[in-house]
Amino acid sequence: xxxxxxxxxxxxxxxxxxxxxxxxxxxxxxxxxxxxxxxxxxxxxxxxxxxxxxxxxxxxxxxxxxxxxxxxxxxxxxxxxxxxxxxxxxxxxxxxxxxxxxxxxxxxxxxxxxxxxxxxxxxxxxxxxxxxxxxxxxxxxxxxxxxxxxxxxxxxxxxxxxxxxxxxxxxxxxxxxxxxxxxxxxxxxxxxxxxxxxxxxxxxxxxxxxxxxxx
Length: 215
What we know:
The protein is α+β, with helices and mostly antiparallel strands and 215 residues long. It is 17% helix and 43% strand.
């Protein structure tokens, strides 16, 4: 006669619960993988227009930005009364931008903006807020910005930081200084305040490409 010892009810419920959790995790992973693959297939199947930057009558702050030559470098200096360095591009008519490629020279942090026709104000389409280096520690040389969806006759790349910028310490700041942070110290019973101020270098880009969906 066989000896049968029934499993405790709590052990049975725990086993079923663990199996349900594992099944849910597996299903979620499969769904994420499916969405990723669908996005990759959509990107591969997308047909793009010719580079809009090479069309005639495109106006830019530095012509080397859109000259089709990766050996030339466009420069954006910081204006005296403005904290922002910017590359501005104006099309002869509004364009429905879906993809932008930036061939980078020294940009670390920046935002891609467009002039909203309805409000005549700059809107952010994409921003890069982290330091971008490859596995070898070299600065990222190319930014491919997909899934854009805006229509405008003007876009700009507003630069916040470059790899060539320096941080200097001041005890007195000017109205136009870009203060990164403030350090407070006490020396020999006396309070002191130091300002860490950004000393910006020229922002540099080799080339910019822009695309819309092919007709």
